[in-house]
Amino acid sequence: MKLNLLKKEKNYMEFEIEGATESMLIPLRNQLLLDDSVDSSNYNINHPKLDDPRFYVSVRSGKPQNALKKATKALSNQYRDMLSEISKLG
Fold first, then answer.
1. H or E segment to which residue 30 belongs
2. Which of 7, 20, 33, 59 places its Cα 20 to 30 Å from the Cα of 39?
């Protein structure tokens, strides 16, 4: 998976995520919105077959890339824990 940075400002980031689907975008957006430093987070898919999704993050404090790192790390931990529980089932 590749991220293409489109715009970066002090409190705002806009990037494309090549090949991402909503099953990845929705949890990422929701996790970002749990962070008190995040002002807004959303994505847009113009055409699902022709365009890569654009993701937007705006923060009240800190850097948007730090909020993004924090959110992806939290999601990674959640999925790792879920995999561990599923593995116990046999």
1. helix 22-33
2. 20
Evaluate if residue 74 carries a pLDDT over 90: yes
What contacts 79, CB < 8 A, 6 or more positions away?
none
- CATH for 3-88, among 3.30.565.10, 3.30.1360.10, 3.40.50.11890, 3.40.50.410? 3.30.1360.10
Distance CA(89)–CA(45), nearest Å, equals 37
Going from N- to C-terminal start, the domains of the chain cover 3-88
Other CB atoms within a 10 A radius of the CB of residue 10 amount to 8
pTM of the prediction?
A: 0.89
Matching residue, tokens 């090549």? 18
- Which one, of 48, 49, 44, lies nearest residue 6 by Cα? 44
pLDDT at 90 over 80: no
